[in-house]
Amino acid sequence: MSRVASHGASTARIEYLRVQNFRALQDVELKAVTPLTVLLGPNGSGKSTVFDVFAFLAECFESGLRRAWDRRGRAKELKTRGSEGPVTIEIKYREKPRTPLITYHLAVDEPADEPEVIHEWLSWKRGRSSRPIRFLEHQGGRAHAAGGDASDADDDGRTFVMSSPDLLAVNLLGQFQEHPREAALRNFIIGWHVSYLSADSTRGQPEAGSQEQLNRTGDNLANVIQFLSERHPRRLDRILEVLSKRVPRVERVLAEAMPDGRLLLQIKDAPFNNPVLARFASDGTLKMLAYLVLLHDPEPPPFIGIEEPENFLHPRLLPELAEECRATCERTQLLVTTHSPFFLDGLRPEEVRILWRDDAGHTQACRAADLPGVQAFMDEGASLGDLWMEGQFGVGDPLVKHGAPSRDFDKRPR
Fold first, then answer.
1. Which domains does the chain have, with CATH numbers?
2. What is the pLDDT of residue 277?
3. Residue 255 is inside which H or E element, if any?
């Protein structure tokens, strides 16, 4: 993946998400999204579906709406069963701290057996008392966009006729300098890293050649290790320092070019003199190494999604991994799915969204911080993981059918 912007403390931040008619997400709204947001819930609660919303949007910008739509089974499989209306995704974000809140709205449907952009718009609100200014409007194959910084409400702008109903106006106009807001959003979304890391993917022997950033499956881990050793050796030393604390006896990680042009990833552990090939290393070691490489990227993606990081990792490593995720959020934004109480132990109530399915089969969500009694329990020393496993959340228990959070939740600390 190519880098599209230099990130850091000024990286864009998503503050709000609303999704309608996307599989089980008939109408889900996440407000006050934090830099580290963790989705918690049992299997089938909708965590992976929320995760896939971000992957779908990124694919729409990278490879086109048609391909992203087809890969998910088209309207028959993608749209909420029994619901009318288009698939709708709306995000609110800031390009930098203290800049205006920008809203991006995308509605897609399949009215004639082909995916089509039903409605797409961008707006921002420059102050609390001002009305939102919609500086991009795309509907019926025609897009009207203001130029420049889009701050002039009287700007007549220009109208563009799209050559195909499945084209996103932001993706098209974002390639031109005269549309900086569209360009900023396009670069932001294309830069997302929605990870599907697996230990098996990291065991391969790719072609030699350094690569700056871990890809979504992790099969170029050896290439990124090579890049870090050549360009950022201190960063690699820091990764290995943290890894050795999580996986005792690991001393070095090597990426060695072979005569046939392949790159061989090796892990040296004490007290042995010879390193072991990555293909023979443990799943947990490789996954922890891959996560640390991703989280310690010298120029991290502006948004990172990680699904179920607890797989193959020892439970005692998970609270520390949560801390690593939070530290990374000084330079990026993370979305993580989990059903591990141990990972939950390293989190704060405002960072956790609990998901469950209602009686109609639709996903519902609430913040752990908004459940009555949670903060009182934590003030008395309880951990989020314990509260969840003891059923104190009132929702999200995989062995109990739950609807809305219980109003009888015990507010008294133990």
1. 1-192+301-414 (3.40.50), 200-299 (no CATH)
2. 87
3. strand 250-257
The two three-digit tokens of residue 137, written as one number: 């409007």
C-alpha dihedral (164, 170, 172, 173), degrees to nearest 10:
130
Query: Tokens 């003030």 correspond to what residue?
Result: 379
Give φ, ψ of 39 to 5 degrees.
Answer: -95, 120
Q: What is the pLDDT of residue 212?
A: 95
For the sheet with 276-277, list strands across it.
250-257, 263-269, 276-277
The per-residue pLDDT for 413 is 38
Q: Is 249 left (phi over 0), alpha (psi -120 to 50) or beta?
A: left
Return the pLDDT at 410: 43
At residue 356's C-alpha, the angle toward residues 354 and 359, to 5°, is: 150
Residues of the chain with pLDDT under 70: 1-10, 126-129, 148-155, 396-414
- Residue type at 262? R
**Which residue type, as a one-letter code, is found at position 288?**
M
φ, ψ dihedrals at 54, nearest 5°:
-70, -40
Q: Which two tokens stand for residue 334?
A: 């993370």
Using the Cα atoms of residue 17, residue 298, residue 238 and residue 228 in order, give the sign of their dihedral.
positive
User: How much is the pTM?
Assistant: 0.90
In the prediction, which pLDDT does 107 show? 98
d(CA 363, CA 330): 30
Exposure class string for 173-207: b at 16+ Cβ within 10 A, else e: bbeeeebebbbbbbbbbbbbbbbebbbebbbbbbe
